[in-house]
Structures are given as C-alpha cells and as structure tokens.
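Usage

Read records sequentially. Each one opens with the input sequence:
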Amino acid sequence: MVLHEHHSDRLQELLLEEKIDFALMNIPQHLDDLVYETVIHERMLLAVNRENPLIRGLKTSVKRPAPIDLSLFKGERFILLPGDQVMGQAQENLFARMGLEGVESLYSTSTTTAVNLVSAGFGVTFLPEGGSRQVSHVDHLAFFTVGAPPFSVPLLFLYKKNVFVTPQARDFIEMTKAYYNGLRPPADL
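and closes with the structure output:
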C-alpha cells in the first residue's frame, strides 16, 4: 500500500482517474461519480498558545477540550486555511454564523504551519481533532471546542462508484474508523 498526501481537490482527481483506491478527506465540493462512508464528524479544535491571557486559569486538555466562546478572541489574529480549501470554507461559514467576519486573519495552506505559528504566540487557529495529538508543540497549546454542538466537519472515506474496494483497503478503512472512534470518550460522541 502506498500513501499519498494531497489537497482535497487533487485527491478527488486521483480518485476519478482511478490512480488511487480511496481517499480519507473532508467532504469535497462535488461528489460526481464518488461514494463515501463517514468516519466521524471530526471536531475542529481551537488551538491557543497556553500563555495567551484570554485563557489563563481555564482547564482544558487535548483529550478533553473545554468549550469556549469564540467571540472572546475577536481581537486576536486568526490563522486560517484559505477559502478555496474545504476546511477554509467551513471556517468562513463558522465565522459568518457567529458574526465574526472581518477579524484579523492570516492565511496558510498548511495546518502544521498554522499550529507552529500559534505555538510561537502569533495567533490562534483551528485544528482537526485527529491531528491535535500529533502536533510537535502540543505542550505549548491549549485546545477548545467552539459552538454548540461543537464546530465539526465530516471526515470521509471516498472511492469511485462501482469500483471494487479491496480487502486491504477495507481493513485500512475499518482500522481508521476504530482509531477515530477511540479519540473521544463515549460521552463526547
């Protein structure tokens, strides 16, 4: 098995060209000739530098992120994904729903870069829950959920319609589902 990493648009192209068997990604803009299985509605956690005075005294952890009011951060710099990415569109939608359009923003095409900037005290960002435990500076960060229900996006396995899913691919899909289902305590699902 060979793993490929690309943005959602490229993964979708590779699926349609039958150059990859399946993709693990957030929902694409178009599902033409694709089917999907939902792995989880993955929470998008607000990552904040632990030294930020706005969160001083708040108890939270990467395993049990506390809820927080996003409007507290209205004066902070947000490091966001661009609107041409699915996650960036979800973030824009969240800001519009919460009346926070026009906040100071810096755009990065990489969540890793965004988290590194937050770790250095350069702003706040959103990070998919599944990636939150693997960040290199997790001890410098505090994680929070935003909204009720918490801001989340569906994480999906996609594959082309009418294409045989190999037993190896099916095993990988099931292992991934088990991993993501094990991230949260049962009460949080």
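Summary fields computed downstream for this record:
- The chain has five helices and eight strands.
- The chain has a mean pLDDT of 87.
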